[in-house]
Amino acid sequence: MTTKKTSLSIWGWGSLGVVLFLITFGPFAIFYFAFYILCFVGGGFVVTLLFGKSNSEKYLEQCEHSFLPCTSVGIPKCIEEMKREARPIKIDRRLTGANIIDEPLQQVIQFSLRDYVQYWYYTLSDDESFLLEIRQALQYALVQFSARSKETDWQPYFTTRLVDDFGTHLRVFRKAQQRIAEKGDQMKDQAEELVDTFFEVEVEMEKEVCRDLVCTSPKDEEGFLRDLCEVLLYILLPPGDFQNKIMRYFVREILSRGILLPLINQLSDPDYINQYVIWMIRDSNCNYEAFMNIIKLSDNIGELEAVKDKASEELQYLRSLDTAGDDINTIKNQINSLLYVIKVCDSRIQRLQSGKEIDTVKLAANFGKLCTVPLDHILVDNVALQFFMDYMQQTGGQAHLFFWMTVEGYRVTAQQQLEVLQSRQRDGKHQTNQTKGLLRAAAVGVYEQYLSEKVGIMYF
Protein backbone atom coordinates (compact mmCIF):
# COMPACT_ATOMS: atom_id res chain seq x y z
CA MET A 1 0.00 0.00 0.00
CA THR A 2 2.85 2.39 0.84
CA THR A 3 4.58 1.72 -2.55
CA LYS A 4 1.39 2.40 -4.51
CA LYS A 5 0.79 5.65 -2.66
CA THR A 6 4.35 6.78 -3.40
CA SER A 7 4.14 6.02 -7.18
CA LEU A 8 0.75 7.82 -7.40
CA SER A 9 2.16 10.88 -5.72
CA ILE A 10 5.12 11.02 -8.11
CA TRP A 11 2.91 10.74 -11.17
CA GLY A 12 0.56 13.34 -9.77
CA TRP A 13 3.23 15.93 -9.04
CA GLY A 14 4.87 15.23 -12.47
CA SER A 15 1.62 15.73 -14.33
CA LEU A 16 0.93 18.94 -12.41
CA GLY A 17 4.40 20.30 -13.33
CA VAL A 18 3.90 19.60 -17.04
CA VAL A 19 0.48 21.28 -17.05
CA LEU A 20 1.80 24.39 -15.29
CA PHE A 21 4.84 24.54 -17.72
CA LEU A 22 2.58 24.41 -20.79
CA ILE A 23 0.13 27.02 -19.31
CA THR A 24 3.00 29.35 -18.46
CA PHE A 25 5.29 29.12 -21.58
CA GLY A 26 2.94 27.84 -24.22
CA PRO A 27 2.85 24.64 -26.35
CA PHE A 28 6.07 25.54 -28.28
CA ALA A 29 8.21 25.72 -25.16
CA ILE A 30 9.55 22.18 -25.71
CA PHE A 31 11.09 23.10 -29.09
CA TYR A 32 12.60 26.27 -27.62
CA PHE A 33 14.13 24.27 -24.79
CA ALA A 34 15.76 21.75 -27.24
CA PHE A 35 17.08 24.63 -29.39
CA TYR A 36 18.66 26.28 -26.32
CA ILE A 37 20.47 23.03 -25.39
CA LEU A 38 21.79 22.58 -28.98
CA CYS A 39 23.15 26.13 -29.04
CA PHE A 40 24.88 25.56 -25.76
CA VAL A 41 26.67 22.40 -26.98
CA GLY A 42 27.66 23.98 -30.34
CA GLY A 43 29.06 27.05 -28.65
CA GLY A 44 31.21 24.94 -26.39
CA PHE A 45 32.57 23.02 -29.37
CA VAL A 46 33.43 26.26 -31.27
CA VAL A 47 35.24 27.71 -28.25
CA THR A 48 37.28 24.54 -27.83
CA LEU A 49 38.23 24.53 -31.54
CA LEU A 50 39.37 28.15 -31.54
CA PHE A 51 41.38 27.64 -28.36
CA GLY A 52 43.16 24.57 -29.82
CA LYS A 53 43.93 26.36 -33.08
CA SER A 54 45.54 29.30 -31.31
CA ASN A 55 47.68 27.02 -29.15
CA SER A 56 48.77 24.95 -32.25
CA GLU A 57 49.86 28.10 -34.10
CA LYS A 58 51.94 29.22 -31.14
CA TYR A 59 53.62 25.75 -30.99
CA LEU A 60 54.42 25.78 -34.73
CA GLU A 61 56.01 29.25 -34.40
CA GLN A 62 58.24 27.90 -31.65
CA CYS A 63 59.28 24.92 -33.87
CA GLU A 64 60.18 27.19 -36.80
CA HIS A 65 62.63 29.15 -34.63
CA SER A 66 64.33 25.95 -33.34
CA PHE A 67 67.85 24.86 -34.44
CA LEU A 68 66.82 21.47 -35.91
CA PRO A 69 66.54 21.38 -39.76
CA CYS A 70 63.28 20.29 -41.29
CA THR A 71 63.20 16.81 -42.75
CA SER A 72 62.47 15.99 -46.41
CA VAL A 73 59.85 13.34 -46.83
CA GLY A 74 58.00 11.75 -49.67
CA ILE A 75 58.52 12.99 -53.22
CA PRO A 76 60.99 15.83 -52.29
CA LYS A 77 63.23 13.26 -50.60
CA CYS A 78 63.17 11.03 -53.70
CA ILE A 79 63.99 13.99 -55.98
CA GLU A 80 66.89 14.96 -53.73
CA GLU A 81 68.31 11.41 -53.83
CA MET A 82 68.00 11.25 -57.62
CA LYS A 83 69.82 14.58 -58.07
CA ARG A 84 72.86 13.37 -56.19
CA GLU A 85 75.89 12.57 -58.32
CA ALA A 86 76.53 8.87 -58.92
CA ARG A 87 79.58 7.59 -57.11
CA PRO A 88 82.19 5.79 -59.20
CA ILE A 89 81.72 2.00 -59.18
CA LYS A 90 84.78 -0.06 -58.30
CA ILE A 91 84.75 -3.73 -59.25
CA ASP A 92 87.26 -6.26 -57.98
CA ARG A 93 88.03 -8.38 -61.04
CA ARG A 94 89.93 -11.07 -59.12
CA LEU A 95 88.13 -14.40 -59.06
CA THR A 96 90.49 -17.36 -59.04
CA GLY A 97 93.86 -15.66 -58.64
CA ALA A 98 94.95 -16.53 -62.19
CA ASN A 99 94.66 -13.70 -64.70
CA ILE A 100 94.44 -16.12 -67.64
CA ILE A 101 91.22 -17.54 -66.12
CA ASP A 102 89.77 -14.39 -64.55
CA GLU A 103 89.56 -12.40 -67.78
CA PRO A 104 87.45 -14.99 -69.69
CA LEU A 105 85.20 -15.39 -66.64
CA GLN A 106 84.71 -11.63 -66.45
CA GLN A 107 83.74 -11.65 -70.12
CA VAL A 108 81.23 -14.44 -69.48
CA ILE A 109 79.68 -12.42 -66.63
CA GLN A 110 79.53 -9.30 -68.78
CA PHE A 111 77.92 -11.13 -71.70
CA SER A 112 75.41 -12.86 -69.40
CA LEU A 113 74.34 -9.53 -67.90
CA ARG A 114 74.10 -8.00 -71.36
CA ASP A 115 72.01 -10.80 -72.86
CA TYR A 116 69.74 -11.62 -69.91
CA VAL A 117 69.45 -8.47 -67.76
CA GLN A 118 70.47 -5.22 -69.41
CA TYR A 119 68.19 -5.47 -72.44
CA TRP A 120 65.08 -5.23 -70.23
CA TYR A 121 66.47 -3.43 -67.15
CA TYR A 122 67.53 -0.29 -69.01
CA THR A 123 63.92 0.18 -70.14
CA LEU A 124 62.99 0.57 -66.47
CA SER A 125 65.90 2.47 -64.91
CA ASP A 126 69.38 3.84 -65.60
CA ASP A 127 70.63 3.13 -62.08
CA GLU A 128 73.64 0.81 -62.14
CA SER A 129 73.35 -0.32 -58.52
CA PHE A 130 71.09 -3.29 -59.33
CA LEU A 131 73.47 -4.56 -62.01
CA LEU A 132 76.39 -4.06 -59.63
CA GLU A 133 74.71 -6.15 -56.93
CA ILE A 134 74.03 -8.98 -59.40
CA ARG A 135 77.62 -8.85 -60.63
CA GLN A 136 78.98 -8.92 -57.09
CA ALA A 137 76.75 -11.89 -56.22
CA LEU A 138 78.00 -13.82 -59.28
CA GLN A 139 81.61 -12.96 -58.52
CA TYR A 140 81.16 -14.06 -54.91
CA ALA A 141 79.74 -17.38 -56.10
CA LEU A 142 82.66 -17.88 -58.49
CA VAL A 143 85.17 -17.05 -55.75
CA GLN A 144 83.53 -19.60 -53.44
CA PHE A 145 83.50 -22.18 -56.25
CA SER A 146 87.19 -21.55 -56.92
CA ALA A 147 88.07 -21.87 -53.23
CA ARG A 148 86.16 -25.14 -52.89
CA SER A 149 87.70 -26.49 -56.09
CA LYS A 150 91.19 -25.82 -54.76
CA GLU A 151 90.38 -27.77 -51.60
CA THR A 152 89.11 -30.79 -53.58
CA ASP A 153 91.41 -33.64 -54.57
CA TRP A 154 90.56 -34.04 -58.25
CA GLN A 155 93.10 -36.75 -59.04
CA PRO A 156 91.05 -39.74 -57.75
CA TYR A 157 87.97 -38.43 -59.56
CA PHE A 158 89.61 -38.02 -62.97
CA THR A 159 91.74 -41.15 -62.74
CA THR A 160 89.23 -43.53 -61.17
CA ARG A 161 85.62 -42.44 -60.87
CA LEU A 162 85.27 -40.59 -64.18
CA VAL A 163 86.99 -43.40 -66.08
CA ASP A 164 84.80 -46.01 -64.38
CA ASP A 165 81.61 -44.05 -65.19
CA PHE A 166 82.62 -43.67 -68.83
CA GLY A 167 83.53 -47.35 -69.09
CA THR A 168 80.22 -48.34 -67.48
CA HIS A 169 78.33 -46.19 -69.96
CA LEU A 170 80.08 -47.88 -72.88
CA ARG A 171 79.43 -51.33 -71.46
CA VAL A 172 75.73 -50.56 -70.99
CA PHE A 173 75.49 -49.22 -74.55
CA ARG A 174 77.20 -52.27 -76.06
CA LYS A 175 75.06 -54.65 -74.06
CA ALA A 176 71.95 -52.83 -75.28
CA GLN A 177 73.20 -53.10 -78.86
CA GLN A 178 73.77 -56.80 -78.33
CA ARG A 179 70.18 -57.30 -77.14
CA ILE A 180 68.87 -55.33 -80.10
CA ALA A 181 70.89 -57.53 -82.45
CA GLU A 182 69.48 -60.65 -80.81
CA LYS A 183 65.89 -59.47 -81.37
CA GLY A 184 66.55 -59.09 -85.09
CA ASP A 185 63.72 -57.78 -87.31
CA GLN A 186 61.04 -57.94 -84.61
CA MET A 187 61.45 -54.24 -83.78
CA LYS A 188 59.51 -51.50 -85.54
CA ASP A 189 61.48 -48.47 -84.34
CA GLN A 190 65.09 -49.46 -83.72
CA ALA A 191 66.20 -46.08 -82.31
CA GLU A 192 63.41 -45.92 -79.74
CA GLU A 193 63.89 -49.57 -78.85
CA LEU A 194 67.62 -48.97 -78.35
CA VAL A 195 66.91 -46.16 -75.88
CA ASP A 196 64.45 -48.31 -73.88
CA THR A 197 66.84 -51.25 -73.86
CA PHE A 198 69.73 -49.03 -72.80
CA PHE A 199 67.93 -47.87 -69.65
CA GLU A 200 66.73 -51.40 -68.89
CA VAL A 201 70.33 -52.58 -68.95
CA GLU A 202 71.33 -49.59 -66.84
CA VAL A 203 68.85 -50.59 -64.13
CA GLU A 204 70.15 -54.16 -64.20
CA MET A 205 73.80 -53.11 -63.87
CA GLU A 206 73.43 -50.19 -61.42
CA LYS A 207 70.50 -51.67 -59.47
CA GLU A 208 68.57 -48.67 -58.07
CA VAL A 209 69.84 -45.99 -60.48
CA CYS A 210 67.95 -45.11 -63.65
CA ARG A 211 68.19 -41.82 -65.53
CA ASP A 212 65.57 -42.43 -68.21
CA LEU A 213 63.27 -39.51 -67.31
CA VAL A 214 66.11 -37.00 -67.02
CA CYS A 215 67.57 -38.08 -70.37
CA THR A 216 64.37 -38.48 -72.40
CA SER A 217 61.92 -35.91 -71.00
CA PRO A 218 62.78 -32.20 -71.58
CA LYS A 219 60.53 -31.17 -68.70
CA ASP A 220 62.22 -33.54 -66.24
CA GLU A 221 65.62 -32.49 -67.54
CA GLU A 222 64.84 -28.82 -66.85
CA GLY A 223 63.53 -29.72 -63.39
CA PHE A 224 66.70 -31.65 -62.61
CA LEU A 225 68.88 -28.74 -63.75
CA ARG A 226 66.83 -26.35 -61.61
CA ASP A 227 67.32 -28.55 -58.55
CA LEU A 228 71.03 -28.81 -59.31
CA CYS A 229 71.35 -25.01 -59.61
CA GLU A 230 69.37 -24.63 -56.37
CA VAL A 231 71.90 -26.80 -54.53
CA LEU A 232 74.84 -24.92 -56.07
CA LEU A 233 73.35 -21.56 -55.09
CA TYR A 234 72.80 -22.81 -51.54
CA ILE A 235 76.47 -23.75 -51.32
CA LEU A 236 77.96 -20.75 -53.10
CA LEU A 237 75.74 -17.73 -52.38
CA PRO A 238 75.75 -15.75 -49.12
CA PRO A 239 72.83 -16.58 -46.80
CA GLY A 240 71.21 -13.16 -47.34
CA ASP A 241 71.21 -13.48 -51.12
CA PHE A 242 69.99 -17.07 -51.00
CA GLN A 243 67.02 -16.14 -48.80
CA ASN A 244 65.98 -13.58 -51.42
CA LYS A 245 63.61 -15.76 -53.44
CA ILE A 246 63.28 -13.37 -56.36
CA MET A 247 67.03 -13.16 -56.88
CA ARG A 248 67.52 -16.89 -56.30
CA TYR A 249 64.88 -17.89 -58.85
CA PHE A 250 66.20 -15.30 -61.29
CA VAL A 251 69.79 -16.59 -61.12
CA ARG A 252 68.59 -20.21 -61.12
CA GLU A 253 66.69 -19.74 -64.38
CA ILE A 254 69.68 -18.01 -65.99
CA LEU A 255 72.01 -20.86 -65.00
CA SER A 256 69.66 -23.73 -65.87
CA ARG A 257 67.92 -22.50 -69.05
CA GLY A 258 70.49 -20.00 -70.31
CA ILE A 259 73.80 -21.78 -69.65
CA LEU A 260 73.59 -25.44 -68.64
CA LEU A 261 70.74 -26.56 -70.94
CA PRO A 262 72.21 -24.99 -74.13
CA LEU A 263 75.63 -26.37 -73.19
CA ILE A 264 74.27 -29.91 -72.79
CA ASN A 265 72.32 -29.65 -76.04
CA GLN A 266 75.42 -28.50 -77.89
CA LEU A 267 77.68 -31.19 -76.44
CA SER A 268 75.11 -33.88 -77.30
CA ASP A 269 74.54 -32.62 -80.85
CA PRO A 270 75.95 -35.22 -83.32
CA ASP A 271 76.93 -32.51 -85.78
CA TYR A 272 78.94 -30.67 -83.12
CA ILE A 273 80.65 -33.91 -82.09
CA ASN A 274 81.52 -34.73 -85.70
CA GLN A 275 82.93 -31.27 -86.29
CA TYR A 276 84.97 -31.49 -83.11
CA VAL A 277 86.35 -34.90 -84.12
CA ILE A 278 87.22 -33.52 -87.55
CA TRP A 279 89.00 -30.60 -85.92
CA MET A 280 90.99 -32.95 -83.69
CA ILE A 281 92.10 -35.25 -86.51
CA ARG A 282 92.69 -32.47 -89.03
CA ASP A 283 96.45 -32.53 -88.51
CA SER A 284 96.74 -36.31 -88.20
CA ASN A 285 98.00 -38.52 -90.98
CA CYS A 286 95.06 -40.66 -92.15
CA ASN A 287 96.29 -42.33 -95.33
CA TYR A 288 94.43 -44.41 -97.89
CA GLU A 289 95.44 -47.74 -96.36
CA ALA A 290 94.12 -46.79 -92.93
CA PHE A 291 90.83 -45.63 -94.48
CA MET A 292 90.38 -48.93 -96.31
CA ASN A 293 91.18 -50.90 -93.17
CA ILE A 294 88.45 -49.01 -91.31
CA ILE A 295 85.93 -49.85 -94.04
CA LYS A 296 86.90 -53.53 -94.00
CA LEU A 297 86.57 -53.71 -90.20
CA SER A 298 83.33 -51.72 -89.92
CA ASP A 299 80.21 -53.61 -88.85
CA ASN A 300 77.75 -50.70 -89.21
CA ILE A 301 75.72 -50.93 -92.42
CA GLY A 302 74.58 -47.32 -92.14
CA GLU A 303 78.14 -46.02 -92.07
CA LEU A 304 79.12 -48.19 -95.03
CA GLU A 305 76.14 -46.96 -97.06
CA ALA A 306 77.02 -43.34 -96.21
CA VAL A 307 80.61 -43.86 -97.41
CA LYS A 308 79.31 -45.53 -100.56
CA ASP A 309 76.91 -42.64 -101.32
CA LYS A 310 79.64 -40.07 -100.75
CA ALA A 311 82.03 -41.98 -103.03
CA SER A 312 79.31 -42.21 -105.70
CA GLU A 313 78.72 -38.45 -105.58
CA GLU A 314 82.44 -37.78 -105.93
CA LEU A 315 82.63 -40.30 -108.78
CA GLN A 316 79.85 -38.53 -110.71
CA TYR A 317 81.58 -35.19 -110.20
CA LEU A 318 84.90 -36.50 -111.56
CA ARG A 319 83.22 -38.07 -114.59
CA SER A 320 81.51 -34.78 -115.41
CA LEU A 321 84.81 -32.90 -115.65
CA ASP A 322 86.08 -32.04 -119.13
CA THR A 323 89.88 -32.25 -118.85
CA ALA A 324 92.78 -33.02 -121.07
CA GLY A 325 96.52 -33.41 -120.82
CA ASP A 326 98.23 -34.55 -117.65
CA ASP A 327 95.13 -33.97 -115.48
CA ILE A 328 93.24 -36.81 -117.14
CA ASN A 329 95.64 -39.39 -115.69
CA THR A 330 95.15 -38.04 -112.19
CA ILE A 331 91.38 -38.11 -112.58
CA LYS A 332 91.47 -41.69 -113.89
CA ASN A 333 93.45 -42.78 -110.82
CA GLN A 334 90.93 -41.07 -108.55
CA ILE A 335 88.03 -42.73 -110.39
CA ASN A 336 89.63 -46.14 -110.02
CA SER A 337 90.19 -45.55 -106.30
CA LEU A 338 86.56 -44.54 -105.81
CA LEU A 339 85.33 -47.57 -107.74
CA TYR A 340 87.43 -49.79 -105.49
CA VAL A 341 85.98 -48.09 -102.38
CA ILE A 342 82.43 -48.65 -103.66
CA LYS A 343 83.25 -52.30 -104.39
CA VAL A 344 84.64 -52.87 -100.89
CA CYS A 345 81.58 -51.21 -99.33
CA ASP A 346 79.21 -53.38 -101.39
CA SER A 347 81.02 -56.58 -100.47
CA ARG A 348 81.12 -55.58 -96.81
CA ILE A 349 77.40 -54.72 -96.76
CA GLN A 350 76.49 -58.02 -98.43
CA ARG A 351 78.59 -59.93 -95.91
CA LEU A 352 76.90 -58.20 -92.98
CA GLN A 353 73.40 -58.62 -94.41
CA SER A 354 73.99 -62.32 -95.03
CA GLY A 355 74.41 -62.86 -91.29
CA LYS A 356 77.82 -64.44 -91.50
CA GLU A 357 80.05 -63.96 -88.46
CA ILE A 358 83.28 -62.13 -88.94
CA ASP A 359 86.27 -64.41 -88.74
CA THR A 360 88.73 -62.18 -86.94
CA VAL A 361 91.59 -64.65 -87.34
CA LYS A 362 91.26 -64.77 -91.16
CA LEU A 363 90.68 -61.05 -91.28
CA ALA A 364 93.86 -60.40 -89.31
CA ALA A 365 95.74 -62.84 -91.53
CA ASN A 366 95.01 -60.59 -94.50
CA PHE A 367 96.95 -57.81 -92.85
CA GLY A 368 99.86 -59.91 -91.67
CA LYS A 369 100.82 -62.42 -89.01
CA LEU A 370 99.34 -62.14 -85.54
CA CYS A 371 101.76 -61.10 -82.82
CA THR A 372 101.79 -62.22 -79.21
CA VAL A 373 101.28 -59.33 -76.80
CA PRO A 374 102.05 -59.88 -73.09
CA LEU A 375 99.23 -59.37 -70.64
CA ASP A 376 101.02 -56.58 -68.78
CA HIS A 377 101.35 -54.64 -72.05
CA ILE A 378 97.64 -55.11 -72.82
CA LEU A 379 96.59 -53.82 -69.41
CA VAL A 380 98.49 -50.54 -69.79
CA ASP A 381 97.45 -49.81 -73.40
CA ASN A 382 94.04 -48.16 -73.82
CA VAL A 383 93.21 -49.61 -77.23
CA ALA A 384 94.34 -53.12 -76.37
CA LEU A 385 92.58 -52.94 -73.01
CA GLN A 386 89.29 -52.02 -74.70
CA PHE A 387 89.43 -55.10 -76.97
CA PHE A 388 90.48 -57.25 -74.03
CA MET A 389 87.48 -56.00 -72.01
CA ASP A 390 85.16 -56.97 -74.88
CA TYR A 391 86.70 -60.42 -74.97
CA MET A 392 86.40 -60.87 -71.19
CA GLN A 393 82.76 -59.77 -71.35
CA GLN A 394 82.02 -62.43 -73.97
CA THR A 395 83.68 -65.12 -71.84
CA GLY A 396 82.00 -63.96 -68.63
CA GLY A 397 85.24 -63.04 -66.85
CA GLN A 398 84.85 -59.25 -66.82
CA ALA A 399 84.56 -59.26 -63.00
CA HIS A 400 88.18 -60.39 -62.70
CA LEU A 401 89.32 -57.60 -65.00
CA PHE A 402 87.30 -54.96 -63.15
CA PHE A 403 88.75 -56.16 -59.86
CA TRP A 404 92.30 -55.89 -61.20
CA MET A 405 91.67 -52.40 -62.62
CA THR A 406 90.18 -51.18 -59.34
CA VAL A 407 93.06 -52.56 -57.28
CA GLU A 408 95.63 -51.17 -59.71
CA GLY A 409 94.03 -47.73 -59.58
CA TYR A 410 94.00 -47.87 -55.79
CA ARG A 411 97.67 -48.94 -55.74
CA VAL A 412 98.79 -46.05 -57.93
CA THR A 413 96.76 -43.51 -55.97
CA ALA A 414 97.96 -44.82 -52.61
CA GLN A 415 101.58 -44.79 -53.78
CA GLN A 416 101.31 -41.16 -54.90
CA GLN A 417 99.62 -40.04 -51.70
CA LEU A 418 102.17 -41.81 -49.50
CA GLU A 419 105.02 -40.21 -51.44
CA VAL A 420 103.47 -36.81 -50.78
CA LEU A 421 103.22 -37.62 -47.06
CA GLN A 422 106.85 -38.71 -46.97
CA SER A 423 108.00 -35.54 -48.71
CA ARG A 424 106.03 -33.41 -46.21
CA GLN A 425 107.60 -35.38 -43.38
CA ARG A 426 111.09 -34.73 -44.74
CA ASP A 427 110.28 -31.03 -45.00
CA GLY A 428 109.14 -30.98 -41.38
CA LYS A 429 105.57 -29.96 -42.15
CA HIS A 430 102.59 -30.87 -40.02
CA GLN A 431 101.18 -34.32 -40.75
CA THR A 432 97.47 -35.10 -40.91
CA ASN A 433 95.69 -38.43 -40.81
CA GLN A 434 93.10 -37.38 -43.39
CA THR A 435 94.95 -38.94 -46.33
CA LYS A 436 95.49 -42.23 -44.53
CA GLY A 437 91.85 -42.25 -43.51
CA LEU A 438 90.73 -41.78 -47.10
CA LEU A 439 93.03 -44.55 -48.31
CA ARG A 440 91.76 -46.86 -45.59
CA ALA A 441 88.14 -46.09 -46.53
CA ALA A 442 88.90 -46.74 -50.22
CA ALA A 443 90.51 -50.09 -49.35
CA VAL A 444 87.46 -51.09 -47.29
CA GLY A 445 85.26 -50.11 -50.24
CA VAL A 446 87.27 -52.36 -52.60
CA TYR A 447 87.01 -55.23 -50.12
CA GLU A 448 83.26 -54.86 -49.69
CA GLN A 449 82.71 -54.60 -53.44
CA TYR A 450 84.78 -57.60 -54.56
CA LEU A 451 86.04 -59.73 -51.63
CA SER A 452 83.34 -59.72 -48.96
CA GLU A 453 81.19 -62.76 -48.36
CA LYS A 454 78.05 -61.02 -49.68
CA VAL A 455 79.39 -60.40 -53.17
CA GLY A 456 82.20 -62.92 -53.39
CA ILE A 457 79.97 -65.66 -54.74
CA MET A 458 78.35 -63.33 -57.27
CA TYR A 459 81.67 -62.19 -58.76
CA PHE A 460 83.74 -65.33 -58.44
TrEMBL record:
Taxonomy, superkingdom: Eukaryota
Q: Which UniProt keywords apply?
A: Membrane, Transmembrane, Transmembrane helix
Give every RGS domain span.
Answer: 374-452
Tell me which positions the record assigns to the signal sequence: none
Name the PROSITE patterns for this protein. PXA, RGS
Query: Which Gene3D superfamilies does the entry link to?
Result: Regulator of G-protein Signalling 4, domain 2
**What SMART domains does the database record attribute to this sequence?**
PXA
Where does the PXA domain start and stop, copy by copy?
98-285
Whether Membrane counts among this entry's keywords is yes
Q: GO cellular component terms?
A: early endosome
Q: Which residues cross the membrane?
A: 7-25, 31-52
Q: Which GO terms describe its molecular function?
A: phosphatidylinositol binding
Task: State whether keyword Repeat applies.
Answer: no
Its protein name is Sorting nexin 13
